[in-house]
Every structure is written in C-alpha cells, then in structure tokens.
C-alpha cells in the first residue's frame, strides 16, 4: 500500500499544472497546442496573401499588406487630385467675380435717387466736359441711371436753353471734322449723325454743306494716296480694291469707279512717257 502511494503523483504536483519531467522540470499545459495554433495562423496568413496577390491582378509576390498599402496610396492620390481641382475651381470663380463689373449685380435693386434733378445735372455736366454730345445721347445716359423721364426732360430742356446742348452745332462740327480728318462722304456722315440721335432735318442741313465738287476732290485725293500701294496687281483687282475703299467711306459706286479709272489711266500715261509729271490730284494729307 505504501508502495502504491509513493508511486502516485502528489496533489501538489498536479495543482502545479502538470507532471514533472525527468529532470524535475514541469511541462506547461497546452504549450504544444499554442505552438500549433500559431503555426496554423501563419500558414493561413501566407495563403491569404497569395490569394490577394492573385485577385489584385498585379502578379505574384504582392501580399495583402502590400495591396492594402497600395490602396491607401491610390486613395491619397485621388484625394490630392480632388483638392487641386477644387482649388482651381475656386480660383476661377474668384477671378470671374473680380472681373465682373460692379454694376452687374442683377439681384441688387437700384437705390432711389435722393435728388433726381441734381443727379441729372451732374451726369450731363460730366458727359459734356469731355466732348460735345447730342440731346439723344444725354437722354440715354439719364435713362440708364433711371432718372425719371419728366426730370430728364426738364434738365435737358434747361441745358438746351442755355446752349449747353446744341444738336445743330454738333452736326456741323461733326461733318467738318470727319470729312477733313477721315475723308468721309455725305452718306457716311449722315449715317453717323443719325446713329447719335440727331434729327433728320438737322442731318440733311449739315451734310448739305459739302458741295459735290468738294466731295469729288476728296475722293481723288484718297485714291492718289492709296494708288502706289496697289502696284503689281492687275487692273481689275486695283479697281475693286480702290473703289471698295471709297465705298466704305460713303462714296457712291459710280463716282468711286470713275475716280479710280481716271487715276489708273493717268498713271499708265505717266509710265509710258517716263515723264515724272506731278499728278493733277493733290495727295491726301489727312488720316484715312
């Protein structure tokens, strides 16, 4: 009996968690199981990495960790592109806002004029300071500033009475300046005056100051100035080009063609005789 008790493990040894080994050391319970489970997890992670590499389509050797890192990099690049696009959009909107005129805000209601008559006077005086204006031009300016019609008519009438607005003087000066400076004919001058709101009767009286002979001499001078620049072209092309120039300045087609042909004939005669005779037409000395 005593021999049996001596051979059986003691309770202390069992509570300690295992039997002693041959050398007196205890073996930890389940240590082998833990090592096996760790090995299985390593094998499973390796297999998962291989599957991720195959699913990724980028070839072998790409592990799940690498794929996850690449995903983070792709998302980061896309976020950067989105931020850059948003920055460019905001910059473009800021530029458009800065270039928009101050009075272009259609949502803002115009403020009522505290003193419409004083405002109308100030507008007219400011516009007339730079150069002469017609009554119609000033009326358009007051309308854009939303000056009441009755106030605008009153102020324009007062300016007309004191001579600050004079459409007749404006038309006369316009005809003289534009004909002398640009060589414009009566038709072109009449169109310009009508666009500025000058009355038809006033327009007719102003352009009638130009005599037909004066208009003819101006046309000849214009052609004489442009003629040397067309040398080398055939005659028909020179006629079309020079006559077109006169037509754009308001000269009639018949007069334009006649003047150009006369100029070409005179040029041909001078070339044949080798006589550097002075052209009977004065060269145009004003801006064309």
Notable characteristics:
disordered C terminus, Arc Repressor Mutant, subunit A, cytoplasm, disordered N terminus, Regulatory_RecX, 288 residues, single chain, mainly alpha, 68% helix, RecX_HTH_1st
Give the SSE layout:
Layout (H helix, E strand, L loop, with lengths): L1 H6 L3 H5 L15 H26 L7 H36 L16 H15 L4 H10 L4 H13 L5 H16 L3 H10 L4 H8 L4 H15 L8 H14 L4 H21 L15
Helix pairs in contact: 5-7, 6-7, 8-9, 8-10, 9-10, 11-13, 12-13
Portion in helices: 55-70%
Strand content: under 5%
Count of DSSP H/I helices? 13
How much is the radius of gyration in Å?
50 Å
DSSP strand count: 0
Low-confidence stretches: 1-29, 53-74, 94-109, 283-288
H/E series, N to C?
HHHHHHHHHHHHH
Structural class: mainly alpha
Tell me about the largest β-sheet: none
Overall pLDDT: 75
Quaternary status of these chains?
A: single chain
Q: How far is the first residue's CA from the last residue's CA?
A: 143 Å
User: Which word captures the global form?
Assistant: flat
Keywords: Cytoplasm
Domain RecX first three-helical: 120-158
Biased composition (Basic residues): 78-91
Biased composition (Basic and acidic residues): 41-54, 92-103
Description:
With 288 residues, the chain is mainly α. Among the domains are: 116-165, Arc Repressor Mutant, subunit A (Orthogonal Bundle), CATH 1.10.10; 166-210, Arc Repressor Mutant, subunit A, CATH 1.10.10; 211-288. The protein is built from 13 helices and no strands. The protein is flat.
